Amino acid sequence: MVIQQSGDRDSRGGNAMRFAQLRYLEAALRTGSFRQAAKELDISQPTITNQVQRLEEDLGVILVTRGTKGVRPTYAADRIMPHVVAAVQAERMLREEASAISGLKLGTVRLGTVPAGSQSILPTVVKRLLTEFPNVRFEVDEGPSKMVVRGVLSGHFDVGLVTRLPGIELTPAEDALIHHIDLVAGRLVLSVPEGHRLAGKDDFEPADLEGEALIFPAESSILRVAFERMLEGVEARIVYATPNAEAAQAMVRAGVGICMANTLLDSTISGKGVALVPLPFEWARASTSAIVRKDEARSSAVQAFLRLLREAAKTY
């Protein structure tokens, strides 16, 4: 005997909830737009709209509100989204594991990374992974550490590469849910115009920045947190703010002001109008670290990626 809930149909009726419908809902609410979700999933917009409507009918609740600024989740959607995300991840892992068992070695690694990750260890690891698993696909977003952490916790990223500083937690309440793998070590420095009074100074103190023109990083950057901590009790004069490290260096080179920089970035070099001043603080020891959510099952492709990250870090 088969017990069927009211409102459902069997496979012959074709109205049972599908994994695809959950994927469409997750993408629409994450991007805030049916159009963007359709573009990301490479399907037509009417298809994604109709399937989300069918999902609403199957569940008997309204899941999205539609307006001129896109789509937003309803209360019902907020309640079920953790289960939707878990189901989407489970389906993806099921397909990838089945492919691995059959010898196809298919898979996807969804990665969020800070610029320091893209410019240090990541190129070598990606090349090695694609050589070993030529059919693995990468989906990569680059941004500040806070964006990467939130993406890992929400399930949007399988792995994140972030900048870590000793004693400075960007998202303290969330760090307990994340496992860190330190990979590459660098250091924070001040980038000043050549000929500046601080250039070559080996006994720097935060008070030396009193009244200096400063170039600040993005608010969600861990460099911003470090800069603000260093300037406690110092009257800061912020003349420019940018999330782009290369733009900050260009401003220094032009004599606009001083910025904080990470030596793991290609743009952090002395010469050509720029001098680097080491910061003599314990928290200035920067590292690029991989992060994953604790106690989360990982696909074969993600496990291979983490293995290659660890191997590359030993010889970097």
Automatic annotation (TrEMBL):
Origin: domain of life: Bacteria
Signal peptide as annotated in the record: none
Domain HTH lysR-type positions: 17-74
Transmembrane helix as UniProt keyword: no
Classification via InterPro entries: LysR_HTH_N, LysR_subst-bd, WH-like_DNA-bd_sf, WH_DNA-bd_sf
An MF annotation (GO) of this entry: DNA binding
Keyword terms: DNA-binding, Transcription, Transcription regulation
Entry GO CC: protein-DNA complex
UniProt entry tagged with the keyword Ribosomal protein: no
Protein family according to the UniProt entry: Belongs to the LysR transcriptional regulatory family.
Protein name as annotated: Bacterial regulatory helix-turn-helix, lysR family protein
Protein species of origin: Pseudarthrobacter siccitolerans
Lineage: Bacteria, Bacillati, Actinomycetota, Actinomycetes, Micrococcales
